Amino acid sequence: MDMKQDDQIKQWIQEAGMEKPGSNFADLIMTRIEEAPATSIVYKPVISPLGIKLIVGGLAVFFVAVIFLSSGHEVAGTASWMTTYNALISDLMRLSSGLERPSFDLPLSGVNPIFGYGLCATALAFMILAKTINGKMSW
Amino acid sequence: VDADLVLVEAVKKGNTQAFRKLVQRHQDFAYTLAYRILKDRQEAEEAAQDAFVKVFRSISAYEGNGKFTTWLYTIVYRECLNRLRKNKTYVEDIDEVREGSAHHSAEDTGLEAMEKDERRAMIQTALNQLNPKESAALTLFYLEEQSLKEVSTVTGMTVSNIKVILHRGRKNLLKVLSTMNSEPIKSWI
Q1: If you count DSSP H runs as helices and E runs as strands, how many of each does chain B have, helices first?
Q2: Number of neighbours of residue B27 by Cβ within 10 angstroms
Q3: Chain A: residue whose CA lies nearest to B124
Q4: Whose CA is closest to A85, among A59, A62, A105?
Q5: How far apart are CA B124 and CA B91, in angstroms?
Q6: To probe the interface with B, which of A5, A11, A25 has the most B CB atoms within 10 Å?
Q7: How many angstroms from the chain centroid is the CA of residue A131?
Q8: Interface predicted TM-score of the whole assembly (ipTM), two decimals
Q9: pLDDT tens for each residue of B74-96
Q10: What is the reported pTM?
Q11: Separation of alpha carbons B41 and B37, rounded Å
C-alpha cells in the first residue's frame, strides 16, 4: 500500500469523524458515580492503625505479665493440666524404657487467679476507653 | 500543563465536577471507539459509561506516567472486548468482513449527488463492516492519530501485530468500499 493510499484512508476516516453519544451521557455517568461512592476502590484496613497498636500493646502486656510475674512454682488450681501431663509422660516412660523423657518446661504462672482476672479486666477497660475516645476505630 | 492531568489531580482531591469535565472532553472518542468495536449504539454507550465509571473508581492508580487518553482508551477497549466475549459475538478471524448493508447503502447515490455527508456515512458504514480489532486500530491510528506504540498499549498487542492489523484493516476497508455501487468510491480506490 503506497503512501498516497494511506493518506487517502486517513482522510476518509477523519472525514467520517466521531460518533456522538446521547445528550445525557455525562449526566448518567455522574449519577452512577454519586449513587455508589462507597464502592470506590480505596484501601481501607479492616482494623484501624490505632486498633492494631492497642491489640499489639494488649498482647505485649499479657506476655510481659506472664513472663515477669511467673514464679516457676505451681500455684494451687492454676496448672493442674501440667501435673496431669507430667504424670502421663511418667507412665509412658515406665512402659517404654530406653526413651528419653521429653522436656516441657514452660514457665508457670504465679499470679493469683483473682489478680489475673483483674489484669484482664483492666486491659479490656483500657481498650474500651480508647475506643470511646477514638470514635473512628473499627474492630 | 496537561489539562487532563490537572483535572485528574482535582478528581483525586475529591472534586467530582472535574471528572464531569474529563468525561465531556473525551466522551465522543470513547464512544466512537466503543461503537467501532461493538457495532451497536446502545451497547457502545453502556460500555463507554462503564469504562468512565471504572476510570473514576481507579483514578488513584493513574500516576500520570502516560497520556490520560491512552489509559482511558485501554479501559474502553478492554470493556468492549469483555462485552464481545460475553455476548459470544466476537469474530477471531481478522480477515473476515461482515456482510452488511454496504452493498445497497450507496446503490442509488449518483456522482453528482454525492455530498460530503453521504461520503462520511459511507465510510462509517464501511468501518462498521470491519472486524472489531481492525476497526479499533484504524480508529485509534487515523482518527485519534495515536502512535503505533500507543495503539499497542491500548490493545495489549505488540507493535508488529498492530502493523499487521492496520494493514489488513486498510485492505478490508478498501474491499468493503469497492463493493459499494458508487462510482466516486470506486474512483477513490
Answers
A1: 10, 0
A2: 21
A3: A16
A4: A105
A5: 19
A6: A25
A7: 17
A8: 0.78
A9: 999 999 999 999 886 555 543 44
A10: 0.61
A11: 10
